[in-house]
Amino acid sequence: MSGSGRRVAKRSRVSRDLIVETALKISDSSAGLEAVTLRGIANKLGIGTMTLYGHFQSKDEILDAMADRVMSGIDLPKVDNETPTEALLAVGGALRALMAEHPSVSWLLSSRVTRSQASMKSAWENVLQRLVNAGIPQETAVRCYGLLIQFSLGFAAYQAPRPWGVESGDVGAELRRQQQHYFAGLPAGDFPLMVSLSPQLVELPTEEQYNWGLNVLAQAITAMCRPRK
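The structure assignment produced for this chain is given below.
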């Protein structure tokens, strides 16, 4: 097949879903969201940039589709007879898992609004129903949703540039050791608490810290929802 024939074949296989999937792979790599460009996506797919315009009118449309794809993929299996605390922990855990799978989602959701019915059904309606089914009043469930997604987005944005909180195993342990050494090496006269608490400070961008905060939120909300005697 000639070169032009191969390009035609590749163009015929390109779809909106494939473009979005490719853009997510680029953004979730170490290259980050800034690497998502029309040229970068086209090069990854082996097509010309103009081919993309047959599916999206602009880069912003691709970014919107990426956000919609991610949010429609929230994994929240149905569970019966949950307590409010269990439901809150499940939702918070699902949001955190989504953002861990797609590290760029915090920047995506901080810059655009998801409007597709698929994403709103998965990430809004189903989540709110999960909280209401657990006994949380409807208006409070809305506030809980906002609190959980804001907490999850904030943590994801905080963790992203701090690799000692992201990496696991020997690599993560070494990065935490180096960061702890940095904190411990600060002038003790000016930073007495940071020096003495250096082992705890390096844990702030870790999953353990997220889970601790999530538990605090869940318990506080549950206490607030209890009927007053």
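Interim note for the steering committee: Residues 1-9 have pLDDT under 50 and may be disordered. The chain has 14 helices and no strands.
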